[in-house]
Automatic annotation (TrEMBL):
GO cellular component: plasma membrane
Protein name per the record: Carbohydrate ABC transporter permease
Species: Ruminiclostridium herbifermentans
Family annotation (Pfam families): BPD_transp_1 (PF00528)
Keyword Transport carried by entry: yes
Keywords: Cell membrane, Membrane, Transmembrane, Transmembrane helix, Transport
Subcellular location: Cell membrane
GO BP: any one term: transmembrane transport
Keyword Transmembrane: yes
Family stated for the protein in its record: Belongs to the binding-protein-dependent transport system permease family.
Transmembrane segments: 12-35, 78-102, 114-133, 145-165, 186-208, 268-289
Membrane topology, as annotated: Multi-pass membrane protein
């Protein structure tokens, strides 16, 4: 082994060592806030005020979660959130992919004009008040479908999926046409199955956005408790705890009748429990989509 090869080998070892240390430090910085929140959520509320909780609860307690779930509205809100997330994700994927396939066909004469119109929606928005009057004019106020219909098509998702479709060999489409397949059958049997990686990526985007949304509930459905979403209920509970003092007899937003179930909770501890409750469903779903995430996003974002 000559000197140049030895130096190269030493350089590789140094790079690998520093890269490993950097990635470990990044992982710790990224995971610590979440793990700390989990520890606080399972810790006794009064003990949390003392501070000094890091990765493990000092006095284990489930009272914070009992306080969150004590109200019966949380369960209905959870069902509404799941329903809107599932419907929004499924319909958005199907309709956006269908639009993307249409705009990827070179024989479609209006594809450039429609693409420009869709892209413009990413840069210009009418604003909150015009949107409110539009929803009101469509009869969607205090209606469950106000959660679904405005999210049926996404300009950004359309561009990503269309770019991915353009990377699919045209010979597959031509072969299907020779066999007598029409556009819809080609879309269902050929294009849609081949878009699995990018669809998994888009599904994660849409699902997270739908699950975390609470402002539309506040604007359009706040007068109907049966249409309240989990995020909106947790936001109200979080707002209540933010205004509460550290009185151990007070589970903010729950009321005196819930004190026996809520136990001794404080705004800090119940806030941590709310955060975990809101994040857990997405954390459970993400591992199933992770293997498709990078492939779908990278292939769907670059067209050579």
């Amino acid at each position: 082994m000559n000197i140049k090869q030895r130096q190269l080998k030493i350089g590789d070892v140094v790079f690998t060592t520093f890269n490993t240390i950097f990635m470990l430090a990044l992982a710790v910085v990224t995971l610590y806030p979440f793990l700390n929140t989990v520890a606080v959520s399972f810790n006794d509320g009064l003990d949390t005020i003392r501070g000094g909780i890091y990765l493990w609860p000092r006095i284990f307690s489930l009272q914070n979660y009992k306080a969150v779930f004590f109200s019966g509205t949380v369960y209905n809100a959870f069902f509404v959130s799941v329903a809107r997330t599932v419907l929004s994700t499924v319909l958005n994927l199907f309709l956006t992919t269908m639009l993307s396939y249409t705009l990827s066909r070179r024989e479609y004469v209006l594809r450039k004009q429609i693409t420009v119109i869709v892209v413009l929606t990413m840069y210009f928005n009418a604003g909150l008040i015009p949107n409110y009057f539009l929803i009101k004019g469509l009869g969607l106020l205090n209606n469950f479908w106000v959660y679904v219909i405005p999210t049926l098509i996404s300009g950004f998702n359309m561009i990503v999926i269309r770019t991915y479709i353009l990377s699919i060999p045209e010979s597959l489409v031509e072969s299907a046409r020779i066999d007598g397949a029409g556009d819809f059958r080609i879309f269902i049997k050929v294009i849609f199955p081949l878009c699995k990686p990018v669809l998994a990526t888009i599904a994660l985007f849409v699902a997270v956005g739908s699950w975390n949304s609470w402002f539309d509930t506040f604007i359009y459905c706040s007068s109907r408790q049966d249409l309240s979403t989990l995020q909106y209920e947790l936001m109200k509970l979080l707002s209540s705890t933010s205004n509460a003092n550290a009185n151990p007899a007070m589970a903010a937003g729950i009321g005196a009748s819930s004190q026996s179930a809520a136990g001794l909770v404080t705004p800090l501890s119940i806030r941590a429990a709310i955060t975990i409750v809101a994040a857990m469903p997405i954390i459970v779903v993400y591992p199933f989509l992770q293997k498709h995430f990078i492939v779908g996003l990278s292939v769907g974002s670059v067209k050579e």
